From TrEMBL:
<keyword id="KW-0472">Membrane</keyword>
<feature type="signal peptide">
    <location>
        <begin position="1"/>
        <end position="36"/>
    </location>
</feature>
<feature type="domain" description="COBRA C-terminal">
    <location>
        <begin position="232"/>
        <end position="425"/>
    </location>
</feature>
<keyword id="KW-0336">GPI-anchor</keyword>
<dbReference type="InterPro" id="IPR006918">
    <property type="entry name" value="COBRA_pln"/>
</dbReference>
<keyword id="KW-0449">Lipoprotein</keyword>
<dbReference type="GO" id="GO:0098552">
    <property type="term" value="C:side of membrane"/>
</dbReference>
<keyword id="KW-0812">Transmembrane</keyword>
<keyword id="KW-0732">Signal</keyword>
<dbReference type="GO" id="GO:0052324">
    <property type="term" value="P:plant-type cell wall cellulose biosynthetic process"/>
</dbReference>
<dbReference type="GO" id="GO:0005886">
    <property type="term" value="C:plasma membrane"/>
</dbReference>
<keyword id="KW-1133">Transmembrane helix</keyword>
<feature type="transmembrane region" description="Helical">
    <location>
        <begin position="434"/>
        <end position="453"/>
    </location>
</feature>
<protein>
    <recommendedName>
        <fullName>COBRA-like protein</fullName>
    </recommendedName>
</protein>
<dbReference type="Pfam" id="PF04833">
    <property type="entry name" value="COBRA"/>
</dbReference>
<dbReference type="Pfam" id="PF25079">
    <property type="entry name" value="COB_C"/>
</dbReference>
<comment type="similarity">
    <text>Belongs to the COBRA family.</text>
</comment>
Length: 456
């Protein structure tokens, strides 16, 4: 009897373990891992704040504001797209500073037709030049949002919405669900709306404070994996002390394959290049990227240029290989231990990023306005460059073992692929230096003997 009980207990234990394993596997298959943590910007996110500012006979008027709290990741043209699902049967009567992309079926309404009757509206920003009577503060930028560190005055975007068929008190209003943010493509995952303490507003004369009737927040975080299945940029390296130029790894952002993917890239000497640049023949097979071994739209080249007694100098070049994409308000984030001793930067702006207290090894670089802040499409003008002067810290500085090269580089918030460390252009090893020294000595001796013989 005892053995039977033991056997049953063992079977139950096995079943329990099997059940736990099954639940784990199901959870893995049901929920996709979309890691959005960025070690160089651990608190970066886009926060959407929904403030109800007044009640109406069948709903409310709200101001919706997007704050880009990301240090170096911005939203560029054609701008953001915000969507959600109504909790009840709400409609949008009118909007200012934004508009929905689809009105939906409003046939059941007699007289005044709502702006949008969809259960899942999609909102976009209005364009610059919108008439003033359709604007609100922080609107009408075409959906472009600059990053917080680069341009905090243009890191917010707002629109006003009048909602009907909704509750008329903070106890009957239901928050929308399933928020989505495209900027302009995928990449962001948004949290459920959370009711928070009502926002307080200070009047322009700063003598009176008012507050929203009800406020909820939505937090959206970025995942590079969701934004693009393949990398979008790569890094190449070179130095004055080594003739080797380390190119981006082959097929970093894709491979040239004319058999399975014809027209995936275009050659600089191709007869089709003129039509691509002029915008003719835009179809799925039209090449966008210049044919290279790495096939990346952006390449960042780091060249260790000069060595002085107390300083050393680096040249940074950003090249655009994309024939269809201009990068406005671009930025570069570089992690290197010597940024703690940055002396001078030429033709780029600089801001120190300190994601962790006491560690100053990360810098954000971007172009000077109206000079090189515009990175043009692929071609003769498709690059920007600058030089950086570092002061040597005698306790850490060395050219040995690739120390002079960056640890990590981001372009427009996306992590660029670095070459493998064993391929870095290192200093000549000791044996090479010894052989060179011996050869040099032998040549000197032979030259001296030749002089003596000629005199004899």
């Amino acid at each position: 009897m005892e053995s039977v009980c033991l056997s049953s207990t063992g079977s139950i234990a096995k079943l329990s373990s099997f059940a736990i394993l099954l639940v784990f596997l199901l959870s893995c298959s049901t929920f996709t891992c979309t890691e959005a943590y960025d070690p160089l910007d651990p608190t970066g996110n886009i926060t959407i704040k929904w403030d109800i500012i007044s009640w109406t006979p069948d709903g409310y008027v709200a101001v919706v504001t997007m704050y880009n709290f990301q240090q170096y990741r911005h939203i560029q043209a054609p701008g953001w797209t915000l969507g959600w699902t109504w909790a009840k049967k709400e409609v949008i009567w009118s909007m200012m500073g934004g508009q929905t992309t689809d009105q939906g079926d409003c046939s059941k309404f007699k007289g005044v037709t709502p702006h949008c009757c969809r259960k899942d509206p999609t909102v976009v920003d209005l364009l610059p030049g919108t008439p003033y009577n359709q604007q609100v503060a922080n609107c009408c930028k075409g959906g472009v949002l600059n990053s917080w560190a680069q341009d905090p005055t243009n890191a917010a975007s707002s629109f006003q919405v009048s909602v009907g068929s909704a509750g008329t008190t903070n106890k009957t209003v239901r928050v929308p669900k399933n928020f989505t943010l495209k900027a302009p493509g995928p990449g962001y995952t948004c949290s459920p709306a959370k009711i928070v303490r009502p926002t307080k507003f200070i009047t322009s004369d700063k003598r009176r404070v008012t507050q929203a009737l009800m406020t909820w927040n939505v937090t959206c975080t970025y995942s590079q994996f969701l934004a693009s299945k393949t990398p979008t940029c790569c890094v190449s390296l070179s130095s004055f002390y080594n003739d080797t130029i380390v190119n981006c790894p082959t097929c970093t952002c894709g491979c040239q394959n004319n058999k399975t993917d014809p027209g995936s890239c275009v050659d600089r000497d191709s007869p089709y290049l003129a039509s691509v640049v002029s915008g003719q023949g835009k179809n799925l097979n039209t090449p966008l990227v210049q044919c290279t071994s790495h096939m990346c739209p952006i390449r960042v080249h780091w060249h260790v240029k000069l060595n002085y007694k107390e300083y050393w100098r680096v040249k940074v070049t950003i090249t655009n290989f994309n024939y269809r994409m201009n990068y406005t308000q671009w930025n570069l984030v570089v992690q290197h231990p010597n940024f703690d001793n940055l002396t001078e930067l030429f033709s780029f702006y600089y801001k120190s990023l300190t994601p962790y207290a006491g560690l100053n090894d990360t810098a954000m670089l971007w172009g000077v306005k109206f000079y090189n802040d515009f990175l043009s499409t692929a071609g003769p003008l498709g690059n920007v460059q600058s030089e950086i002067l570092f002061r040597k810290d005698k306790s850490t500085f060395t050219f040995d073992k690739g120390w002079a090269f960056p640890r990590r580089i981001y372009f427009n918030g996306d992590n660029c692929v670095m070459p493998p460390p064993d391929s870095y252009p290192w200093l000549p090893n000791a044996s090479s230096q010894l052989i060179f020294s011996i050869l040099y000595t032998v040549l000197v001796i032979l030259a001296s003997l030749a002089v003596l013989l000629s005199q004899a």
